[in-house]
Amino acid sequence: MTATTKAHKGRRITLITAGSIVGVALLGLGVVLTVGGIFVPAHYLEPWARSYADQFADPRMKVVAQAELAPSGHNMQPWVVTMDPSDPDVLFLFADADRLTPAVDPLARQTLVSQGTFLQYLRVSAANLGYSATIDLFPQGTYEESDLVASMATLPVAKITLAKDPAVAAPDYAALFLSDTNRSPYTAATLTTGQQRELTGLADGSGASLRILTDQNDLTALGALAVQGTLIESQYAAATAESDAVFHSTETAKNDARSGFAVEGQGTSGFMKYLLQGLITIVPAINDDAAAAKNAIALTDDAVAHTPAYALISTPGNTRTEQVRAGILYAELSLHARTLGLVMQPLSQVLQEYPAMAGPYAAVHREYAPGGQTIQMLVRVGNPTTDYPDTMRRDPATLIRTP
């Protein structure tokens, strides 16, 4: 065999070896992407389409189908709706006691705030259809706190009455279909005086107060509290177990659950979404509690370091009605912020009422609610550096119960 022949043979062996390695790598990648659900239709995203509600003839179902796009604690979407069989213009909203998160929300305060976000989204959806939505909170009385779960099943949070109204307007309707939470770093651009005025003006007559904080001392203090809250929650076993139970790592799982957490919550989308989902499913240790905690703290550190403003929503007390009204105001804030081109991220950990969070909870209230008010929402506000993907939403038919 000549030297030239040996050289050609060597090159062929090298190419065959390299080709085999590439082939195996591509095969492995294909397996990971397949496990991650790249070929599975994302039915859990269908409600985000503007035309989705058109399938329903009943205006009440149309508004429910769009109200469920509202943000909720842990994305649990804890809503039950009944239609009044005797009045085609009336529906009732109940809190779903099967969707509580008692580890991080032991008093169900965030669940009641989430009722308010649903009501505001419903109001905006109704206005777009040419209806006013009159909302009567706790029409049959408020909960018996000693038997909260039973109260939630029997006492409606709200009675909603729709009425044709040619004068009603829905200026924030387009914002219903934009992702409500953006956890990325924000640009350094400050909120304009006009933006701040428009946002704080939303609180007029709401029964809650809304402050926009842009002073550097406040940014530093609130950022530090947010990081502390994330650290405490990441080390609280009951909270991590609760989050793990509602985390779904494949498209099939998300189509089944249609609520809770997924990789989109950290901004992962496109090809990387399927890759990460496949890797987590095949090698669960990639997303074990230690890795998740480290990632959560790093993301919060980065986020608060790039935050030009915080918003605080507070109420004089902490009644169930005040919690719902705070949720209504938060949804107004979230929707109008998006109309103005801004984005937001709730930082709920430091406001949670379980014992391990008592220190930072007391600190934020001591500094920012000295009159004894309850801070219901703390959120970052700013201009986005990246878009965030939509998250799972339930089939609206699953919200409906027969009265």
Structure description:
It is built from 12 helices and 9 strands. With 403 residues, it is of the alpha+beta class. The strands form 2 sheets. It has a 5-stranded mixed beta sheet with strand order 3-4-2-1-9, with helices on both faces. The radius of gyration is 24 Å and the shape is globular. Residues 15-24 have low confidence and may be disordered.
Q: What are the SSEs and their pairings?
A:
Layout: H1 3-35, H2 59-67, E1 79-83, E2 90-95, H3 109-128, E3 131-137, H4 148-154, E4 158-164, H5 193-201, E5 209-213, H6 216-234, H7 237-245, H8 251-257, H9 270-282, H10 289-305, E6 309-315, H11 320-339, E7 343-346, H12 358-368, E8 374-382, E9 400-401
Parallel strand pairs: 1-9
Antiparallel strand pairs: 1-2, 2-4, 3-4, 5-6, 6-8, 7-8
Helix pairs in contact: 1-9, 2-3, 3-11, 6-10
Rounded to the nearest angstrom, the distance between the terminal CA atoms is 89 Å
For the biggest β-sheet, the strand order reads 3-4-2-1-9
Secondary-structure element pattern, one letter each: HHEEHEHEHEHHHHHEHEHEE
The value of Rg in angstroms is 24 Å
Proportion of helical residues: 40-55%
**Average pLDDT, to the nearest integer?**
92
Tell me the strand percentage band: 5-15%
Number of strands: 9
Shape estimate: globular
Major sheet: size, sense and barrel closure?
5 strands, mixed
Q: Low-confidence runs (pLDDT<50, min 5 residues)?
A: 15-24
Q: Which structural category do the helix and sheet elements fall into? A: alpha+beta
- Count of individual helical segments: 12
